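Course exercise 7: structure representation. Students receive a sequence record and must write out the corresponding structure in token form. The form below is the worked example handed out in class, using Prokaryotic metallothionein (83 residues). Read each field label carefully; the graders check that inputs and outputs are placed in the correct fields and that the protein name is recorded exactly as given.

STUDENT ID: A-19
EXERCISE PROTEIN: Prokaryotic metallothionein
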Amino acid sequence: MTRCEVCGNDYSMPIHIEAQGVRHTFDSFDCAIHRMAPVCEHCRVRITGKGVEADGRFFCGAHCAKAEGVHGIVDRIGSVPAT
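STUDENT ANSWER:
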């Protein structure tokens, strides 16, 4: 059994994620997100999707980046053709 590094649960089927040369062990995706997902610098939500990065700062989307004074980032959702 392997212990989750977030909640401490000793679980027989853990999730192992390697990032930047460090191996992490979790019992669920929830714990992995809690430990590893960056936090938007504007709204403080955990970024579990693509998000955006500007000058080493992470944002959940262009709207939050713009609210923090970042220029040149554009949400492209309006440019996707309807099906």
